[in-house]
Each structure stands twice: as C-alpha cells, then as structure tokens.
Design goal:
The chain is of the alpha+beta class. The chain has helices at 2-19, 179-207, 216-233, 244-271; strands at 27-31, 39-49, 54-61, 64-66, 69-71, 78-84, 87-93, 101-107, 120-132, 138-141, 143-148, 150-151, 154-161, 169-177. It has two domains: 17-176, Immunoglobulin-like, CATH 2.60.40; 181-271. This is DUF4436 domain-containing protein.
Length: 275
C-alpha cells in the first residue's frame, strides 16, 4: 500500500510539472513596441473546435489616445489586411466611422482530436495595416499586436513568425488543452481501466471457485457497466466517440465489465444457493 501511494503521488507530481494547471493567461505583446504612430491590434480567441479544426478569433483595432482619452472613431482611411491560410481579408477603416471589430475562423494544423486529452494544434496568421494618402498611394504602417492567451479549456501561446510583407506581423499560435483538462482526462481513463480490472478480478475469481458467490456483487458489476459510459460522458470538451483513448481503454473497459458480469452469473448458476 505504501508503494502504491508513493507511485500515485509521483505520477501526480509529474503531471503537475508537465501540464502546469496553475498557469494564468496573460497578454502577449508582439510586433513593434508601443509608441506614437504605431497601430495597435487586439486579438481575442473565442472558441476552439477541434472536430472541425478551426479557431474562432475576434480581431479589433485599439483606439488611439487623443488628449488623454481613447477615441474609438477612425481618423484616417486605412485598411486592415488579415491573411488566414490561402484567404486574404480586407477590413476598411473609414474616417468618422467606429473602429472595426471582426470575427474570423482560422484553420488548425498539426493536430488531431483523436489524441485527446493530449491533442495540440497550431494556427497561423499575418496582419498588416496600410494607410491611403491624399494621392491614393498606400503606405504600410508599423503595428503592435496584443494577444490575450486565455481560452476556456485550452492554453494558447503566441509567438512572432517571419513574414515577407513590409511592416506586417506574422503570428503562430500554439494551442493545447489546459493542464486541468489534460490531468482530468487522464485520471478518468485510468479510473475506467481500474474499475474494469476490479470487475474482472471479481468475476474471474468467483468463476474459478477461488471466492464464494455473493449475490451483492452482481449489482456492483452491473453498476460498473453503466458507470464506465457515465465517466466517458463526464470528460470536459466532449471529445467525439472513437478517439484513441476510447479504443485503448474505454471500449476494453466496457467489454471487460460485461464479461465480468457474465462470469459471475455463470458461477452463480453453477454453484449458487438452491431454494
């Protein structure tokens, strides 16, 4: 028992060190440093859809401070260019109009939901702002990007990527499940495996005649059959049925619990008490 408790404590400590469930989201500062003449863009991830491999992101222009107060009205004709994969979006910024706030979906790459709860993804984008002068000529403007790295159930980390556009900012977002979600998912699948093994031990030992038939175990084994799917349904993020952890653990645990009940019933039929 002492060895088992020690191994469990060691495994838990390793998971805490690897996944960092206490990490707090912060605002990542990318691109040019804040200053006069620098256009500021704020990125706020809204939702990750691993099944459809998409990231929903809200992109807004941060108003410049004029006379000590932020003014959320465009003072110049500008254009915000957002490149997402092979698509390029142009958002117009017009004089006298509110600064734009748009929501786009970005494709996720280098990840698969079948790896839940250890799945990781990557998204890329390029941002650029140009200003239209009186002569109609467009001039690229330096920009500063603020990325909020908080997202429910996920951990987002942003970093700059090289880009060919002048004054453009390339971003790479590394996305993975939060530490709490990963630890809870691993714990649930471990619990499924332990429950199934315990059920097989009960059914196998009774069937082999090593332990006597106690009818109360029939209810416990029957409850295990329904408890395993309930544990599966409690997983955060509701991963689709058929991920790798299901094939390796969940399906085996469900079949094992059913076999354990069948072995117990067979032993009860063979040597149970007669009326």
């Amino acid at each position: 028992m002492a060895v088992l408790v020690g191994l469990c404590a060691l495994a838990y400590g390793l998971m805490l060190a690897l996944f960092g469930p206490s990490d707090r989201p912060v605002e990542a500062q990318l691109g040019k440093a804040l200053g006069d003449g620098i256009v500021t863009i704020y990125l706020h991830p809204l939702r990750v859809d691993p099944v459809n491999s998409s990231l929903q992101m809200r992109i807004s222009m941060v108003p410049a401070a004029i006379a000590g107060a932020p003014v959320a009205i465009g003072d110049r004709n500008r254009s915000l260019v957002i490149q997402r994969g092979n698509q390029v979006e142009h958002v117009a910024i017009t004089i006298g109009q509110p600064l734009p706030e748009v929501v786009f979906d970005f494709d996720l790459s280098d990840g698969d939901v079948r790896d839940y709860p250890l799945d990781r993804y990557r998204a890329s984008m390029t941002l650029a702002v140009s200003e239209t002068g009186a002569d109609g000529k467009e001039t690229a403007l330096p920009i500063h990007v603020t990325l909020w790295e908080g997202l429910l159930g996920f951990r987002v980390r942003g970093r700059a990527e090289p880009t060919q556009g002048k004054e453009a900012v390339g971003l790479r977002l590394d996305i993975r499940r939060s530490g709490a979600v990963s630890i809870f998912g691993i714990a649930v699948y471990v619990a499924m495996a332990v429950i199934a093994i315990c059920g097989l031990l009960i059914g196998g030992l009774v069937f082999a005649g090593v332990r006597r038939v106690e009818v109360t175990f029939a209810g416990a084994l029957g409850a295990i059959i329904f408890a395993v799917p309930a544990l599966r349904a409690a997983l955060p993020g509701t991963p689709p049925l058929g991920i790798r952890a299901d094939v390796l653990i969940f399906f085996c645990a469900e079949f094992g619990a059913t076999i354990a009940l069948c072995l117990f019933v067979a032993a009860w039929i063979r040597s149970g008490a007669r009326p």
